[in-house]
């Protein structure tokens, strides 16, 4: 996995974790925050799938 890919995944995981932490602490998420987190999760899944596809080509 490239350094750039690791950085992207770290940032996505950090942002997802930050939103989830607020929810765990009892704060109710706004609808936009919920969907933002879902978008981040989808972006993370896409990055991982592309990385796996690139591994298969090597």
Question: How do the helices and strands line up, and which of them pair or pack?
Answer:
Layout: H1 3-24, H2 31-57
Structure description:
With 58 residues, the chain is an all-alpha fold. The chain has one domain. The chain is built from two helices and no strands. Helix 1 runs antiparallel to helix 2. The radius of gyration is 14 Å and the shape is elongated. The model has no long low-confidence stretch (mean pLDDT 94).
Sheet having the most strands: none
- As residue ranges, the low-confidence spans are none
Order of helices and strands: HH
Query: What is Rg?
Result: 14 Å
Shape: elongated
Q: Tally the beta strands.
A: 0
Tally of separate helices: 2
Q: What percentage of amino acids are in beta strands?
A: under 5%
Query: Which structural class fits the helix and strand makeup?
Result: mainly alpha
Mean pLDDT: 94
N- and C-termini, Cα separation: 12 Å
Give a brief rundown of this model.
The chain has 58 residues and is mainly α. The protein has helices spanning 3-24, 31-57.
Based on the model shown, name its key terms.
single chain, 58 residues, mainly alpha, elongated
């Amino acid at each position: 996995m490239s350094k750039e890919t690791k950085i992207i995944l770290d940032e996505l995981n950090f942002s997802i974790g930050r939103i989830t932490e607020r929810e765990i602490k009892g704060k109710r998420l706004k609808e936009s925050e919920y969907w933002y987190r879902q978008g981040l999760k989808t972006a993370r899944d896409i990055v991982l799938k592309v990385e796996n596809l690139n591994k298969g080509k090597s």
